[in-house]
Amino acid sequence: MKLITIVNRTKGAVVATRISVADTFLTRLVGLLGRKGLDADCGLLIQPSSGVHTFGMRFPIDIVALDRQLRVRAIWHGLRPWRTSDVSWKTHAVLELPAGHIQHNALEAGDQLEVVEHSSL
Question: Is 27 helix (H, G, I), strand (E, B) or coil?
């Protein structure tokens, strides 16, 4: 799976440097299932996605809903297993992060995020 870095352009800060991209049917379907947790600088960008669920997961996650321009539309702190986020047709992608990461990075609705591609070696 491809890795990217997510930067918060609004606040001039790096959100996380090891974000996997789920952009195929299979990678979106599997998501974070089967994992025991997320390391501090990891996450998953699911695109396209209008909302997510945590059915079958074993740990809580923070959720960031993004529009087509990667502007933060909504956030959910510590979504526990067996829950769902709201679904919105205005949401184009969802960023899943370790629980507490949104607060640690002071992410909020309206922040403009940016994807930085990792250079291949």
Answer: helix
Return the sign of the alpha-carbon dihedral for residues 81, 86, 87, 90: negative
Domain regions of the chain by residue span: 3-117
Any bridge partners for residue 115, and if so which? 6
Domain 3-117 sits in CATH at 2.60.120.1140
For residues 62 and 99, the answer to whether their CB atoms sit within 8 Å is yes
Please state, in angstroms and rounded to a whole number, the distance separating the CA atoms of residues 121 and 109: 35
Predicted model pTM: 0.92
90: β partners:
none
Structure tokens at 32: 């974070």
Q: How far apart are CA 121 and CA 1, in angstroms?
A: 15
Give the pLDDT confidence of 75-93 residue by residue, as tens digits: 999 999 998 888 898 999 9
